[in-house]
Fold:
Amino acid sequence: MEIGPQLSTLIDNRRDGSIVDALHKARSINRHNDIFSKVLTLQQINQCCTKMISVYNRKRIINMHFVQGYGYKKIRKFLNHQIDVKTIRRYCNDYAEALEKGGKEAADHYLYKEVKYTAISRLRTKLTPEIRTLIEECVNANLAKQEKLMGKQIMRKTDIFELLRNQGFTDISYQSVCKYAMS
Structure:
């Protein structure tokens, strides 16, 4: 069964088993034209979307706003409230700006440009030098106890966290203590 390249890449990008299973069923039946209209509705595709916004969704947002004339809230409602109105507004404004500055070529480049998410490694602001020294002392004491074969007296991460809480460091989280103790 021949499916279009756009549809096949759309299906490959989705990780939901329900659509893939439905496509396998559609492949086994020869009457695929009727099945595709039932299987691949836009709502089913929207349910499979991940948190990251794909190029396909960005093109749909721009198409709904500029071609079909939908407002930002109506686009959000159509996308099952998966994308925030501010994000939709930003995409539409960026496209309009690219259209004004660079013309049709720049706007097309914006449409097909992959969205890059930057994961900035944040500094741990609550992890002060005092807390770091206390955690390091506990870890060093644990290493010394391991060398002396006193494994039952080793402080676990929860014990270190409780020690910090008892000493007045209430604004640090357990995850921060765990990450620093493991490093």
Observations:
- The chain has two domains: 5-112, 129-182.
- The two ends are 53 Å apart (CA to CA).
